[in-house]
Amino acid sequence: MPSGKAVLGLMGSGRVDRLRSGRHGGCSVFSTTFRYALISLMELSRSQGLRQASTIASQFNLSPHYLCVVLRELRRLGLVDSQKGKHGGYRLTCELEQVNLLTLYRSLPGSSDADDIESERRLGAGVAEIWLQQVAERWCKELASTSLADLQGQEFSGDS
Q: Which residues pair with 90 in a beta bridge?
């Protein structure tokens, strides 16, 4: 299974199709909301000025409607700003270094957490649940130690 940085970094190497479709390693680790948020934030960080949601959706073959839902959530979190109108769009309102991926993940609706696995473990976990807890803990540490700035400009190779 690829590390969190490798999975998230697929965007930087033109392999967004795997990220967006959840085909990394055969299972979808991240919610659609988190993937859309990450793609949006990285794209907005590369832009000078405003980017329209429809442009981002088209470029990455995302649902325009759901992308707008996610962008509204990012605006609520104070990460993006929007301007209405014919020449409107979205822009990043924060420094990439300020956006910790674990905090972002936990701030979005529909995000599960290692705490969910921990509560299941206390209810009579077996070996599989304990292993899942350990994986979730490593995954959270990886996200916690990664910012959007860490992803920007990184090269990721192969199917690692």
A: 51, 82
